[in-house]
Specification:
seven-stranded mixed beta sheet; 18 strands; 2 domains; about 375 residues; Rossmann fold; globular
Length: about 375
């Protein structure tokens, strides 16, 4: 039985570890014993370590066949680098801000397969995109996605499954999309639209930097955009906080102490955004892919509406199970491309991944229309 170590035991990391434990010998590592104690599967091994220390990462992954990275984004790049140096394959969901291809040469030199951004979006959205790119000439790709609490609580009507600092990054990092084959850069939270979704109602979309690697790997597609979804009104609160400097990383002097406003903001907001055990959530994603297929103009629309079930957060399931599907691909020798692989490189394995998700009741409904 292959041995797998999952670095990070937050809401998503725990779901990943528990799912993988059905087929593999799994060890979960986290700095928080409280997080580790929430694991419900007894046969999962647990290690409480501070993974901000690169030496700890090297030491802990040495005895394993494969590594899963489920750490906050600001730790993701360095973690992947250290794992590569140990010559271990890795599947990662951390959404780190650095250019992943900066590690491509290192991964190839160490004969490592490193799949990154392997969640829901980026992740499954990229896989769907590249799956259709193999059989049609795509002109337009649009992905609208959001993870939201079932109960709307003032003022933000939002709960965070991921690290709060990673969430704040979405509100500050410039948003990039492609229009008429030209890269467009807009302010995050810009160009808001109200859109109705079946089973949900009206949500507000806004520009976020979710295309990521697609900007480089899908340059032949002239129009590509990804937007994040929140309940209407949330964006205005976030814009006020950003305009007042609460998301700034530049240190300010407060009574002789230097602090970064973003660190204080994260501390204040996390209790408001933290998912409680009794909280329920849902994930909604709509992907539209348009172009020419076999001489006809077509549009494929994928729609995901996944809800909290089996005492498991939806965003943790939809993200975590995409990751574990990729882990199974590697473990079974079905994917072995060396170097850095963004999720769009897995397009040829769409059927395997989609079937894997369906078995876990994560269902992407698809509709094909002739234009």
């Amino acid at each position: 039985m292959k041995k797998i170590v999952v670095l990070g035991c937050g809401l998503v990391g725990r779901v990943i570890a528990e799912d993988l434990s059905t087929n593999f010998d799994v060890t979960s590592v986290d700095f928080s014993q409280k997080n580790l104690d929430k694991i419900s599967v007894k046969k999962i091994n647990k290690k409480c370590l501070d993974l901000q220390d690169p030496n700890q990462i090297k030491n802990v992954v040495n005895d394993f066949d494969l590594v899963v990275g489920a750490l906050p984004g600001d730790m993701g790049f360095e973690t992947m680098k250290q794992v590569i140096l140990t010559k271990k394959d890795i599947v990662d969901i951390s959404f780190f801000p650095e250019d992943p291809f900066a590690l491509d040469r290192l991964a190839k030199e160490n004969n490592v397969t490193a799949i990154m951004d392997c969640g829901v979006a980026p992740g499954m959205g990229n896989i769907i995109f590249s799956y259709h790119d193999q059989s049609m000439q795509i002109s337009d790709y649009e992905c609208l996605v959001g993870g939201l609490p079932k109960n709307r609580e003032w003022p933000f009507e939002y709960k965070a499954v991921f690290s709060p600092v990673d969430v704040i990054e979405e509100y500050t990092r410039p948003a990039r999309y492609v229009h008429n084959s030209q890269l467009v850069v807009k302010e995050a939270l810009s160009e808001t639209e109200l859109i109705d979704f079946d089973g949900v109602g009206t949500l507000e979309s806004w520009n976020s930097d979710g295309l990521r690697t697609l900007i480089d790997t899908m340059k032949h597609v002239p129009n590509m955009i990804e937007k994040t979804l929140r309940y209407p009104g949330c964006v205005e609160y976030l814009k006020v906080l950003r305009a007042c400097g609460y998301f700034s990383k530049d240190e300010v002097n407060v009574n002789g102490n230097k602090i970064r406003p973003i660190d204080l903001t994260a501390k204040l907001l996390f209790p408001l955004w933290e998912m409680k055990e009794e909280d329920e959530d849902f994930t909604v994603m709509r992907i539209k892919i348009s172009g020419e297929e076999k001489g006809a103009k077509v549009t494929y629309t994928y729609y995901l509406l996944d809800k909290f079930q089996n005492k498991t957060m939806s965003m943790a399931r939809t993200t975590g199970y995409t990751c574990t599907a990729a882990v199974n691909l590697l473990a079974e020798g079905m994917f072995s491309k060396k170097g850095i692989s963004p999720p769009e490189y897995l397009g040829a394995h769409f059927d395997f991944i989609n079937n894997y998700l369906e078995k876990r009741n994560v269902i992407y409904h698809v509709k094909k229309e002739l234009v």
